[in-house]
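User: Please fill in residues for this 187-position structure.
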């Protein structure tokens, strides 16, 4: 008789299930704008939010008005309460207390987060930003080596150091703007 592997639903020592969310479930979660905004809002926040706070924030984002119109707030509130939050809770992406109407990010949000490309406030992804910065740094170092006026006086080591410092500052900025997300991962 063939020996079976570990039960995928078995809990590990930390109490978390070893299996992650299936890719099709992640795509189903991300297909809806309100579910994406819920995850983003919870990741950018510093802890638990109420359903009212969450629906207000999502309604404001959808309507572009602050405060958002009452009918939009109510629509968002009802759809979150009846559909979106129970779905996210069943997948352990968020923890939703239906009685107290309180929501917090949960352990499997990281599985979903891997599929959510982080975009800067200027509309490009961080990956595109760092890739562009790296290519620009490469061209600047090569230009200083071949004697392009202005860069030849600095030297390739100085040019490379400036770009490394710029990359370091960018990383610190990115970590700072997403600090609640990273602190939650550490705890």
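Assistant: Residues filled in for all 187 positions:
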């Amino acid at each position: 008789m063939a020996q079976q592997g570990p039960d995928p639903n078995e809990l590990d020592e930390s109490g978390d299930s070893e299996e992650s969310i299936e890719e099709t479930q992640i795509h189903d979660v991300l297909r809806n704008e309100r579910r994406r905004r819920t995850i983003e809002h919870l990741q950018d926040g510093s802890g638990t939010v109420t359903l009212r706070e969450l629906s207000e924030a999502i309604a404001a984002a959808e309507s572009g008005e602050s405060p958002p119109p009452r009918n939009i707030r109510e629509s968002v509130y009802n759809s979150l309460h009846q559909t979106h939050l129970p779905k996210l809770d069943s997948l352990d992406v968020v923890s939703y207390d239906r009685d107290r109407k309180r929501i917090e990010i949960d352990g499997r949000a990281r599985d979903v987060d891997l599929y959510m490309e982080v975009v800067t406030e200027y509309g490009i992804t961080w990956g595109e930003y760092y890739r562009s910065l790296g290519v620009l740094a490469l061209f600047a170092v090569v230009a200083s080596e071949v004697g392009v006026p202005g860069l030849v006086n600095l030297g390739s080591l100085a040019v490379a150091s400036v770009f490394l410092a710029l990359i370091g500052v960018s990383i610190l900025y990115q970590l700072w703007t997403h600090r609640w997300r990273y602190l939650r991962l550490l705890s």
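For context: The chain is about 60% helix and 5% strand.
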